[in-house]
Amino acid sequence: MTEMSPAATAAAAGTTGFKAPGTTPEKTPRGYTPGLAAVNFGVYLALLTPVMVSMAFKIQHISATPEEATGNLGLVLGVGALFALIANPLAGRLSDRTTSRWGMRRSWILGGTLVGLGGFALIGVTESLWVVLVAWCIVQAAMNAVLAAANATLPDQVPQQSRGKVSGIIGITTPLGILGGNFLVTFLSDDFARFVVPAAIATVLSVLFVLVLKDRRLEHKPAQRFTVGQFFGSFVFNPVKHPDFGWTWLTKFFVMFGYAGVATFLPFYLTEKFQLDEQAAITTILIANLASMAAMMISAPVGGILSDKIGKRRPFVAIAGGIMVVGLALLAVAPDITTLIVAQAIIGLGAGSFLSVDLALATQVLPNPEDTAKDLGVLNIANALPQSIAPAIAPAIIAIGAATPLGGYTTWYLFGALVALAGAVLVYRIKGVK
Predict the structure, then answer these.
(1) Inter-helix orientation angle 337-363/243-273, to 10°
(2) Would you list the DSSP string of 237-274?
(3) Model confidence pLDDT, tens digit, residues 176-211
(4) Of the candidates 224, 85, 160, which has an alpha carbon nearest to the alpha carbon of residue 365?
(5) Nearest residue to 376 via CA among 151, 39, 168
(6) What is the predicted pLDDT for the residue at 258?
(7) Who's near 352: CB < 8 A, 6+ residues apart?
(8) Please, what's the b/e burial string for 67-106 (b: 16 or more CB within 10 A of its CB; e: otherwise)?
(9) How many Cα atoms are found within 13 Å in the side-chain-facing hemisphere of 198?
(10) What SS3 class is residue 216?
């Protein structure tokens, strides 16, 4: 078969509403940025509501003792995050090879949210820990496939000089998802609604995004079949050949470890240290996340826009990580609820700038333009892996800390602060980006 010229391919793509492979527009298409923001918001609403609130209380409802609940929560969230770790880069790589007439990314976005919706419903109705575990693994795999495919459209649709601004807008979706989930949970009294309502909203927003997305479409199947070696290659990269990519991965991993550690055990921290009941803890988390979101709403767009204007990414990532360290340390020693809320606001201030600029920086260190989704998926392992490691090691660190004058949760949050500090320092190992 005769290959079309780039110009002819682009023309054909334009007539069908799809983008030709390898082309980036001079300006961001109308409707793309709010559409991508909406699908990210939906995914984070569905995924982070359980991580922040719903799953802890679901596990508490089906566990015999508080100690058993802590271990069970670590098990469910830890194993589930491993599935997220696998699904994100794998789905990204498969979407890079997808030759559907519907485009490379659309079917992954829509299919993932529908599978996720079913998984959330199963968690809501079951009384079995093991069913919760299996369903949460399905949810993590499906929703991370959505994230991989959706965020892989960024280099296709947005010029490099505008990616900081778009990344800043996308960065806001994380705190908005957290806040939206906390807000919903205050009005939802049963487990089924707490899991299904956010997932249903995510499904609607995904449908809207795939309708407006002018997706890339591969006209020809890849020359090579998807081999076992390529499967395992979906999760690795060569840090010697691509050192900037490696340091970017480590920076993200360490900073997100501190962030993930806050999210998972905050409900137990509130009920144990401050003696709050379930409803009071939910209300406090909502207020704390309102403060965090307000700070992120300021720092995310400002960080993204300033990094575009100044032409530098690393200082914003380093400062953001340092601010998060201050917030984590304050959270660890908080004597009262007011101080805890202030600490969450400080963490949000740093996280907003980090999440906005980090994605823009990542798109500038990708090793291979032909494997955009795969490489972004590898970077997203640095988001998912802390969510697995943190819950897995937290019970041990909390238990060790409980035997010291510091206390279990104080020790845990101070540990998270040290790890996040390492990430803030390591960003200056990246040499190819200012």
Answers:
(1) 160
(2) --TTTSHHHHHHHHHHHHHHHHHHHHHHHHHHHHHHHS
(3) 887 788 888 888 878 899 999 999 999 999 999 988
(4) 160
(5) 151
(6) 83
(7) 171, 172, 175, 295, 296, 297, 298, 299, 300, 303, 320
(8) eebbebbbbbbbbbbbbbbbbbbbbbbbbbbbeeeebbbb
(9) 36
(10) strand
Task: Summarize pLDDT for 29-61 with one digit per residue, the tens.
Answer: 778 888 888 999 999 999 988 887 888 889 988
CA neighbor of 217 nearest in space, from 108, 98, 90, 110: 98
On whether the CB atoms of residues 408 and 402 are closer than 8 A, the answer is yes
Predicted confidence (pLDDT) per residue in 339-395, tens digit: 999 999 999 888 888 877 777 777 777 776 666 666 776 777 777 778 778 877 888
**Percentage of residues in the chain with pLDDT exceeding 90?**
21
Residue 376 CA to its chain's centroid (Å): 12
Whether the CB-CB separation of 202 and 116 falls below 8 Å is answered with yes
Residue 197, pLDDT score: 94
CA distances from 16 to 111, 248, 256, 292 (A): 22, 37, 40, 43
> Helix (H, G, I), strand (E, B), or coil: what is residue 18?
coil
* CA distance linking residue 358 with residue 364, whole number of Å: 10
Residue of 126, 124, 107, 110 lying closest to 39 (CA atoms): 110
Band (pLDDT 50/70/90 cuts) for residue 13 is very low
To the nearest 10°, report the CA torsion of 38, 292, 392, 395: -150
367: Cβ contacts below 8 Å, ≥ 6 apart: 237, 238, 241, 242, 245, 375
| CATH number listed for the domain at residues 31-214+229-429 | 1.20.1250.20
Residue 92: C-alpha distances to residues 77, 109, 171, 376, 418 (Å) = 22, 11, 20, 8, 31
User: What is the separation, in whole angstroms, between the first and last Cα of the chain?
Assistant: 44
Q: What's the CA gap between 179 and 198, in Å, rounded?
A: 12
- CA-closest candidate to residue 118, choices 41, 184, 40, 203: 203
88, 381 Cβ separation under 8 angstroms: yes
- Structural domain spans, the chain: 31-214+229-429
